[in-house]
Amino acid sequence: MALPLLSRSLAGLLVESSSITHQRTFSVSAVAAAIQKMTRVRVVDNSSLGNTPYHRAPRVIHVYTQNGIGKVGDKVLLAIKGQKKKALIVGHKMPGDRMTPRFDSNNVVLIEDNGNPTGTRIKVPIPTHLRKHEGEYSKVLAIASAFV
Amino acid sequence: MNFLTRSKKLISVFKSSVLLDRTGVLRSVCSVPKARKGLCLPSLFTTHVPSCQHRRHVSTLNLDTKRLYSEICTESDESTKSTGVFREESQEMERDSSALNQRSPEKFTIDVLVSLLRQENAVDICVIKVPEQITYSEYFIVVSGVSPRHLRAMALYAIKVYKFLKKEGAPNVKIEGKDAEDWMCIDFGNMVVHFMLPESREVFELEKLWTLRKYDEQLKSMPTETLPEDFIYDGKVTK
C-alpha cells in the first residue's frame, strides 16, 4: 500500500499557504483511512443542525459497515450539538477508486432514521458514482445541486 | 382486479393517448377520467371521435424540447357512462384501426410510466426533462399521492409494470425509502420517479430545484461559505 510511503513523505511538512501566511509548527501526517470513529466531518447540507455553530465539531461515533471504515455511500452515526444523528458519507479525503472524485474535506449529509435527508439542499458537489452503489441514495441525489 | 387486465387497460390507454397525440392536440389541462372503473378514455374515443379534436388533452413530453410539463389530474364524473358495451366496441375499433397501427409498448418508456401514473389517480404529475449536461438521468418525475398507502400502491404497480415489460437482461429496480411513509423513489436508469406526500413536496420543492438548477431560491438563501481565518491549505496528496 502507498499509505506508509505517503505518511513518511508528508510527515514533518511545514506548510505555508499563499494568501494567509501561517506557519505550522507541528508535523502533519497524511490521511490514514477513510472515515472511522472519532473523525471530524463537515456537514454539507442546509439543515439547521448542521449549520449552527457549536464549540465542538461533529464527530463520527459509529460506522455502519462490517469493518469500521466508512467510504462514500456508507451510513454513520454522528454526535452533533450533543445529540446523535445518522448521516451519509458523500466524500472523503482518502483517494478511492480510479476515476472517482477525491474531496478536500470529509463531507457528510444528515439523514433521518427513515432515510429522508434532514436538509433540503446540498451546495457541495456530490459524486455520481453513488448511483451505482447498493443503497438508497436517490433522495440525496435529488436534493443535490452539483454533481461531480 | 388482476394484473393482466390492468396492464391491458394500461396498454390501451397508452394507445389511445398516443392516437390523440397524433391528431395534433397538445398541451392543455384536461379532465382525465378515472381509468380504474373501466376504460373511459377509449370509450370517449369511440363515441366522440370528432369531438376529441376539441377536447383538450395533456401531453406529457416533447422529446425535442427540454421544458417542464406540469399536469394536474383531476377526477371527473365521466365514469357515469356504462362501460361494458363500450369496452367491446373499443377493442373492435383498435383491431380495425390498422392504419393507425401503433405497436403495444414493448419498452418501459416515459409514456408508459406517465400513463400508468394517471391510471393510478396520481395527483400533480410533474415530468422534467433533465438537460444533457447533468449526467444523472433523462427524466425526473415527481408525483403526489393522497395518502402513504396510495404512494406505496403506485410505487408497487410501477414496479410490476416494469417487470412485465422489461427484457431478460435488464436489472431489477427497487423502491427506495420503503420505510419512509412520505417519500419513496424508484430509479429506472433513464428515469427517476419520486412519490411524495403534498406536505413533503412543499418542503423539498424538487421541481423548483430541477428546473431552476442553480437559480433556485433555497440555494440562494443558503449562506455562501467562506474559509475561516486560520485556514491552512494542505499540500497535494497524491497516490
TrEMBL record, chain A:
Chief location: mitochondrion
Pfam families from the UniProt entry: Ribosomal_L14 (PF00238)
A GO MF label: structural constituent of ribosome
UniProt keyword RNA-binding, yes or no: no
Keywords (A to Z) from UniProt: Mitochondrion, Ribonucleoprotein, Ribosomal protein, Transit peptide
HAMAP family (UniProt xref): Ribosomal_uL14 (MF_01367)
Family that this chain belongs to: Belongs to the universal ribosomal protein uL14 family.
The protein's name in its UniProt record: Large ribosomal subunit protein uL14m
TrEMBL record, chain B:
Organism superkingdom: Eukaryota
Residue spans of biased composition, Basic and acidic residues class: 86-97
NCBIfam families: rsfS_iojap_ybeB
Protein name, UniProt field: Mitochondrial assembly of ribosomal large subunit protein 1
Species: Champsocephalus gunnari
Compartments where found: Mitochondrion
Sorted UniProt keywords: Mitochondrion
Task performed by this protein: Required for normal mitochondrial ribosome function and mitochondrial translation. May play a role in ribosome biogenesis by preventing premature association of the 28S and 39S ribosomal subunits. Interacts with mitochondrial ribosomal protein uL14m (MRPL14), probably blocking formation of intersubunit bridge B8, preventing association of the 28S and 39S ribosomal subunits. Addition to isolated mitochondrial ribosomal subunits partially inhibits translation, probably by interfering with the association of the 28S and 39S ribosomal subunits and the formation of functional ribosomes.
GO molecular function annotation: ribosomal large subunit binding
A single Gene Ontology CC term: mitochondrion
Disordered: annotated span: 80-100
Family of the protein in this entry: Belongs to the Iojap/RsfS family.
GO biological process per UniProt: negative regulation of ribosome biogenesis; negative regulation of translation
Main subcellular localisation: mitochondrion
